[in-house]
Design brief:
Number of domains: 1
Distance between the termini: 36 Å
CATH superfamily: DHBP synthase
Number of helices: 6
Structural class: alpha/beta
Number of strands: 9
Shape: globular
CATH class: Alpha Beta
Largest sheet: 9 strands, mixed
Order of helices and strands: HEEHEHHEEHEHEEE
Strand content: 15-25%
Oligomer: single chain
């Protein structure tokens, strides 16, 4: 299956509420439509993760931020434009997302992705994706496809074929919490 066919299949499955194991611009992730509460619930179950812990959502452009946030602090645009590596920002005032993907304090972690697969899936789906590391709760993050626990592979609805052979080890994104006053705190360097 070529990359375009893989992208179209992924979009079709995501629209049906399926949970996928996907390559991202950082590490492999367990993904679903971030507006579908049942699919989000399945990810919590697959990972064995407490529902009080939030997950990252992915968007393909900074222009989409306003659709999912009540207010986008101006500093966010500067941080995103000047970041040299993948950057996840935790924002206040999440909206238009499944309630169970939003943290109890109303925040949501969002990363604007690069990379052919994710950006094109997001563009065609026209909804944000949940993306959480492809590991069981409490276990080390799998940076390569071959390191992903088979229990996860067997529980998702589909495993994307593309980029499985990627041999370079990558790291998760930097995470910054940004408040509405423009103050920020680095949560994960």
């Amino acid at each position: 299956m070529n990359l375009q066919e893989e992208i179209l299949k992924s979009v079709e499955l995501l629209r049906k509420g399926k949970v996928l194991l996907t390559p991202t611009d950082t590490i492999w992730g367990i993904s679903c439509d971030a507006t579908n509460a049942k699919a989000v619930q399945r990810i919590f179950k697959i990972k064995g993760r407490e529902e009080s812990k939030s997950m990252i959502i992915l968007l393909e452009t900074v222009e989409k931020l306003e659709k999912y946030l009540k207010n986008v602090p101006p500093l966010a645009y500067d941080l995103l434009a000047n970041s040299r590596s993948p950057l996840t920002i935790v924002y206040s005032g999440a909206k238009n997302l499944a309630k169970n993907v939003i943290a109890k304090d109303g925040t949501i972690a969002i990363r604007i992705v690069s990379g052919e697969y994710c950006a094109e899936v997001l563009r065609l789906l026209d909804r944000p994706l949940v993306s959480t590391s492809a590991n069981l709760a409490g276990q080390p993050t799998a940076t390569l496809f071959e390191d992903i626990n088979p229990a996860i592979i067997h529980q998702v609805d589909y495993v994307v074929e593309a980029f499985r052979d990627r041999v370079r080890s990558v790291k998760p994104s930097t995470i910054i919490k940004l408040d509405e006053n423009g103050l920020f705190k680095v949560l994960r360097p």
